[in-house]
Write a structure and sequence with these properties.
heterodimer, A: about 70 residues, mainly alpha, elongated, B: about 290 residues, alpha+beta, Four Helix Bundle (Hemerythrin (Met), subunit A), 2 domains, 5-stranded antiparallel β-sheet, 5 strands, about 10% strand
Chain lengths: ~70, ~290
């Protein structure tokens, strides 16, 4: 497996982790109702979306440069 | 004698030497960390009620370190791509950022997270003496709520000499918030954001204590696994930083002038190792910090 393929796998897991962290923040927030956790959830979901966008950009760039 | 297939791929396998080498190495690493993760899961599942702590790690700091590692994975790939496109100046910048990210991760881990544990103290109370410390533990309330009991009193040790001086018969502990208001339902779960110990001092007789130490690997199974896994992971991060620094120094420039593809291959192999290290952290973080 090449570095590019491994990178895509890592970004996929990172995205899942970001979604998981967001859900965890919402879960804790449902019990503690602390503003910092709402902020954490928003930040985590935003990070997950950013990682998806980055993953797509990376895939296209590698293809364009013929590195995939 | 020139070693074959260091730069070009072997025709029958389509691989060059170092790539086979790194994947064999990573396979052994999967077994190493897999064994440790399995040990962690079974120890946790078999822990007696009240003996597996929760919420002791600083989630925002762990999240910061996770973000740093993911960012470093991005920059190492960009460094490799820059080499493939023969943009050496850009490679130096991306590789420099990768090294910086690795160093930041280690500084946060070794300079902040671990030392925060070393100054924390915990005393496990003997089952025969739990009743005596009921005002601090609030176990009747927990029992009524169907929650596991508290068997440990934690905080910052006020009289450090008590650890070594047998003449001192008690520990004076600046209590963690949970022990100052143990029957408050908000204390039924640990605080997920770090809350420092209070000013209130709790006195625990040594005769009532099963075992008491600072939060070191010897304190309990949780910290033994925490320090083992994060320590081993930290060593891997350090190894990655050292290798990247080697490629970033003039040695890398010299190799680039002689054979840029050879340097690109080396960076790719080191990048594969770095990605593995990051992937391990992506499992460590939720396991220790969130669950």
């Amino acid at each position: 497996m090449s570095l590019k393929a491994f990178h895509i796998i890592l970004i996929t897991f990172s995205t899942l982790l970001a979604f998981g962290l967001g859900i965890w923040c919402l879960w804790v927030n449902s019990m503690e109702a602390t503003a910092s956790y709402t902020l954490g959830a928003v930040g985590s979901f935003a990070a997950a979306v950013a990682l998806i966008i980055y993953g797509c950009w990376f895939w296209r760039k590698m293809k364009r440069l013929r590195l995939i | 004698m020139e070693i074959p297939y260091t730069v070009t791929a072997r025709p029958d396998t389509g691989l060059w030497n170092a790539k086979i080498g790194i994947w064999l190495f990573l396979a052994s690493e999967v077994m190493l960390f897999g064994g440790l993760f399995s040990a962690y899961i079974f120890l946790r599942l078999d822990a007696e009620p009240g003996y597996w702590p929760h919420g002791l790690l600083n989630v925002p700091v762990g999240t910061f370190n996770t973000a740093i590692l993911i960012a470093s994975s991005v920059t190492v790939v960009l460094a490799w791509a820059a080499l493939k496109m023969r943009q050496f100046a850009r490679y130096k910048i991306y590789m420099g950022i990768t090294i910086l990210c690795g160093v930041i991760f280690l500084v946060v881990k070794l300079g902040y997270e671990w030392p925060q544990k070393y100054v924390h103290f915990g005393a496990y109370i003997k089952s025969s003496a739990l009743e005596k410390y009921e005002p601090l533990l609030g176990n009747k309330h927990l029992l009524a709520e169907g929650l596991p009991p508290r068997v440990e009193i934690t905080g910052h040790l006020h009289n450090h000499e008590a650890l070594h001086d047998p003449k001192i018969k008690e520990y004076e502990i600046a209590l963690d918030p949970v022990y100052t208001d143990p029957t408050n339902p908000k204390m039924d779960r640990p605080h997920f954001l770090y809350v420092p110990p209070t000013e209130k001092i709790g006195v625990v007789q040594k005769a009532d204590v099963e075992r008491a130490t600072m939060f070191l690997p010897t304190h309990n199974t949780y910290f033994a696994t925490y320090f083992t896994i994060t320590g081993l992971h930290g060593l891997h991060v350090l190894a990655g930083v050292l290798v990247f620094t080697y490629f970033w120094l003039p040695v890398g420039s010299k190799l680039y002038r002689e054979n840029p593809e050879h340097l690109a291959n080396r960076v790719e192999v080191a990048g594969l190792f770095w990605h593995f290290v990051d992937l391990v952290w992506i499992f460590v973080f939720p396991l220790f910090y969130l669950l």
